[in-house]
Specification:
two-stranded parallel sheet, globular, TIM Barrel, 11 strands, nine-stranded parallel β-sheet, about 280 residues, about 40% helix, 11 helices, alpha/beta
C-alpha cells in the first residue's frame, strides 16, 4: 500500500491576486505537505507584477525549488495543461515542462487532450493526441517524469475513450491524473471510475462539487476549473481514500478549490479521512 499525501493546487489563490511565493507560504501555513504550481510559456503581465500565481518557464526553475525548500514543501506535479489535440501547442510546451519539472523537482506534469476542433474527425484527433503524447514522453522518460493525463474534454470524459488515450503510447511514464470533480460532472460515478483506472494513477486532483453546481451542470459540461472545499460537496472522500489504499503507488490528493477559505477547510476534512 502506498502513502496518501495532501497537496494544494495553487489555483486556490488565483482570485486573491497573489504571487507564487505568497501562495507557497500560504499553503505551508495551512499545513499542506505538497503544492502543484501552474507554469506557462513566455511572459504574462499579471504574473510579472506578482498578481498571479503562475510561473513562467522562462524563469529559473530554481525559483520554484527554493520557495519549496524555504517553507518545507514538496512538489506533487506541475500544472502544465496544454492541448494534446493541437500538437503545435502541446509538443513544445510539454517538452519544456518536462525539462523544467526535472530541474525544479516535480515528479509529474499534468495535461489533457484539449477542445475538439470542428474540422477534424475523431480518428484524426486520436492521431494528433498520440503524436503529442509520444513527443512529450520522449523527453519525460529519460528524466523519470510522469505524464498525467486528465479527464477534462470531449473524449476523456468518456471512460472507454479515456482508456484509449491512456493506451495510445506504451510508456511507463504515461498515466492518469484523476480529477474527481470532472469525472462527477461528466455524469460518471467517480469512485467506480477511479477503481477502474487506479493501476494507472500517477496524481489526483481532489475536486469537490457543490450541490448547487451539481444540480445545474452535471452531464452538461466538460469539467470545471475549480470546485468547492473538499467535504462541502458531493464527493465521498472516505470512498476515494479506500480505493487509494488498495494500490501500491504513492498518490497525492492535490486540492483544486477556488478560494483561500476553501483551501483551509479542504485540508481539515482530508486529514480526517486519511488518518
Amino acid at each position: 500500500m502506498g502513502t496518501i499525501g495532501i497537496g494544494l493546487n495553487l489555483e486556490a489563490v488565483r482570485t486573491s491576486h497573489k504571487s507564487f511565493e505568497w501562495a507557497v507560504q500560504f499553503a505551508a501555513e495551512l499545513g499542506y505537505e505538497y503544492i502543484e504550481p501552474m507554469v506557462h510559456w513566455g511572459r504574462e503581465l499579471l504574473s510579472e507584477a506578482r498578481y498571479f500565481h503562475s510561473v513562467s518557464m522562462l524563469d529559473d526553475p530554481l525559483r520554484i525549488r527554493k520557495a519549496c525548500e524555504k517553507h518545507g514543501l514538496k512538489l506533487s506535479a506541475l500544472s502544465s495543461h496544454s492541448q494534446l489535440s493541437k500538437p503545435e501547442i502541446a509538443v513544445e510546451y510539454l517538452k519544456q515542462a518536462a525539462r523544467y519539472a526535472a530541474e525544479c523537482g516535480a515528479p509529474v506534469i499534468n495535461t489533457h487532450e484539449g477542445h475538439k476542433q470542428p474540422w477534424t474527425t475523431e480518428e484524426e484527433d486520436f492521431v494528433l493526441i498520440r503524436y503529442s503524447i509520444m513527443e512529450a514522453a520522449k523527453v519525460c522518460e529519460p528524466r523519470s517524469i510522469k505524464l498525467g493525463l486528465e479527464m477534462h474534454q470531449t473524449y476523456s470524459l468518456i471512460p472507454d475513450k479515456y482508456d484509449r488515450i491512456l493506451n495510445l503510447v506504451r510508456s511507463p511514464i504515461v498515466g492518469a491524473n484523476f480529477d474527481t470533480g470532472n469525472a462527477y460532472l461528466g455524469g460518471i460515478d467517480p469512485i467506480v471510475w477511479l477503481d477502474r483506472i487506479k493501476h494507472r494513477l500517477v496524481h489526483m486532483h481532489a475536486k469537490d462539487i457543490a450541490i448547487e453546481q451539481s444540480d445545474a451542470e452535471r452531464g452538461k459540461v466538460m469539467g470545471t476549473p475549480v470546485g468547492c472545499a473538499c467535504g462541502d460537496g458531493v464527493i465521498d472522500w472516505a470512498a476515494v481514500v479506500s480505493v487509494l489504499r488498495s494500490i501500491p503507488q504513492d498518490v497525492v490528493l492535490s486540492v483544486e478549490c477556488g478560494t483561500l477559505d476553501q483551501a483551509a477547510r479542504s485540508i481539515e476534512h482530508l486529514r480526517k479521512v486519511t488518518r
